Each structure stands twice: as C-alpha cells, then as structure tokens.
User: What shape does this take?
Amino acid sequence: IGAGGRVITCRAAIAWTTNAPLTIEKVEVDPPKAGEVRIKIISSGICDTNKHILEGKDKVPFPAIWGHEGAGTVESIGEGVTRDKVLMFPLPECRECSSCLHPKSNFCLKERLVSISLTFFHPIYGTSRFTCRGRKIYHLYGTSTFTEYTVVHEIAVGKIDDDAPMDTVCILSCEVPTGFGAVFNIAKVRMFTPGSTCVVFGLGGIGSAVVMACKASGASRIIGVDIKEEKFPRARTLGVTDCLNPQKLKKPVQEVVVEMTGKGADFAFEAIGLIDTMVATLESCHPSYGVGVIIGLAPTNSQLIFDPMLLLSGRTLKGGALGNYKTRSCIPKMVTDYLQKKINLDPLITHTLPFESINKAFELLQGGHCIRCVLLF
Assistant: This one.
C-alpha cells in the first residue's frame, strides 16, 4: 500500500458485466491530480440505482467500480485541495456555474468538464484512476465507493463533523437527501396545512425516507405502494397508514388511490424508476392542485408519455436530483442535524455487512429484504 503521491494497491468490487456477481479484486488507485482527492472509504450504502445497473436497466460502461453513497477520510490531495472527514456526492457543487449560483437549483453543470466525473443522468466517461489486471476501470458518477480507496474531484466532496459516525452517515450521500428533499424542497409539503394526503410508489430506501419526511410534515394519510409486501410492516412503523400491492388489485393502483382519497392525493412520489409508475404517480394526484414528484431513475433511453390533460387541469409534475439540495453547502449540515438528534437516520439502515459480503447485500436488496445495506470496510 502506497501513500501520498504513490499508487495505492487495495481491494475493490468490480462489475465486469450485467447480471453477474461483482468480484473483489486487487486494483491500483492513482494518486490525485490537481483539484482531486483520494479517499479511504469507511462505509458505503448500496442504492437501488446500483441494482438497476446490475440488472441492465441503466446503461454504464464496463468494467466499472460502482457505488455512490460513501463516507471516508482524505488520504491524499491534489494541488489546491483541503479536506478531512468527508462524504462523496454523485452530484457535485462547483459554486461557479449558472445552476450552482441560482438559489433554486443544484444540478451542477461544471461536472461535464471534470475529467473523472459522470453526470448523474447523462454519463460522460473520462479518464480512469483505477487499474485492474492491466485494464483501466471506469468510475461511476465520479465517486466509485465500492473500493477501499477512490479518487474524487474536490467539488464532489463535503467535509463533515469530526464526531460523525462513519458507519451511518454514508446514506446522507444519496438516500436521505433524495427522499427528504423530495418532500421538503421539491413538493414543499410544509407549504400546505397539516393533514395532507401523500402516496409513495416504492418503499425501498429512498421511498422510506420520503415516508419519514411526509410524516414529519404533518401528512395525515400516507399510502405506500409496493409489490413486495414484506416491506409493509416496516413502512407502517415509519408512518405509512395504508399499504397497496398493485399486483393484488382489481383495477390500476392509481384508480384505487383516487377512490381512497376522494379526488386524488395532494402529493405523490415515484421512488422506483419505472415509466408505468411515473404515469401512475401523476394520475394519482388531485386534478386541480396535486403535485407529483419523480425521484426514481428511469431505464436508459426511456420516454415518458401521458395525456397532457392531466396537467391542464392543474396538476404539477416535478423532478429533482438529490432532493434539490446543494450538496457541499447543505448536506454536511444534515450530518450536524443527525448528531444533534434533529433527524433520525437509524430506521433507514436495515443491514450492515462487511465489504467482502457485497454480493450478499445485493441479494438482500433484490429480494426485497433490505431497505438499505451499509458496507463496512
């Protein structure tokens, strides 16, 4: 193992192709260049987006090191960079582009110019900092946290409190801000009087975070939708009042939601990433003022088609990445809130496994037995 300006040899989980287990290999990790940080990973969450890539729904190049929910410590830095205990973000914040400078936007545009970065929805694959068996290995979303060491651009890294529990806070890189921000920042549930009705499509990690935020916002009714009923008991403990399995209904789930709520839900959230559930989310909304929010990442090259009359009546369809939080500016503050017990992350982690059990973690996720699994290095 090297340090500073030397190449580091370490373990990483490499995806060589879709629909196959990841293999733990020895990789060489280059030292950081100007504006980059090399980080020792301490923990990484497994997001459903990684499952979609594994299943071939979201196209990325191979071989690659996945993972975008990571917490770690800075091992070495490139010129002009200073960092300590950190989170890594799949969406950077350059604080210079038109999006970063706008008060309502967080979708950084400068990442397209970063050599190792991948934009969140439109990957651009640049220079790799990983080598295995003599081959260059691709990064994922500019982070690649399924490795003992990674190289990240400094605009995608946020310094956090020295007291942060590193076995937990990694989920603040994606799961928590994506779910909480969908409610607080995008739908703005708090703008309505308490007693709102919400429907959440998908009760995985991000959907569970949405449920918690809806409850915190005073929603009186939260309808959870999922085809895996083993998720229902836990969802109810988080705040879901009604559970629906679309496969056991006699009519489309959106029709059932409209009947249950009178005219439709005040807010609807799609946390799965399927075109059909995105349309169902919009159709579940109240026709005059309902707000639908798309959170899930749809399969590559998907097209969303729906009747425009759904919008002309007054519904709103919105979207956002990482809950519209400016990552470096806002998410480290969420770590502080967690330390001060203002927010609770613990119910969102159901499994903790050693890094070498990564394929077991994917099996739990695919089987619906896991809300969020955290890998410890």
Q: What stands out?
A: The longest helix spans residues 175-187. The two ends are 15 Å apart (CA to CA). Residues 2 and 8 are 5 Å apart (CA to CA). Residues 113-126 have pLDDT under 50 and may be disordered.
